[in-house]
Structure formats: C-alpha cells, structure tokens
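We modelled the chain as a single entity of 67 amino acids. Its sequence is:
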Amino acid sequence: MKNCIAFGDGMNDQDMLKVAGKAYIMKNSDPHLKIALPHLEIIESNDNDGVARCLNKIFIENNKEML
C-alpha cells in the first residue's frame, strides 16, 4: 500500500485514503472528509481536472528535473 496513490471526494473513500502511501482529497469533496483527514493535501476539484493535474505534477513535472 505504501506505493499506492489514492484520490477521494466522499466519505466512502476515507478508509482507502487512510491506507494509501500518498493520498489526496479533491477540493469539491465532502466537508466531513476534509475534517476527518485534515493532514491530507487538497487538490483541484473534479471539474478542474484535479486528478490529471496532480498526476502530471507527480510523474511529468517532477521528473523533468531528473533529465
């Protein structure tokens, strides 16, 4: 699980977000989820391609520095 990335926006995602190695909460998520997991980074909403932007940052932008 330490090598997994998880994204969530609802209370049904809480357990998954707790066990993933790196977890993100969507900006448009259930407010109760943000309260339950305050240590997680909040990324852009689903409407603003939050998951795609985050993955691009992790796998593309961060790796440009290594080239």
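As a brief sanity check on the tokenised model: The first helix runs from residue 14 to 19. The helical segments are 14-19, 31-36, 50-64.
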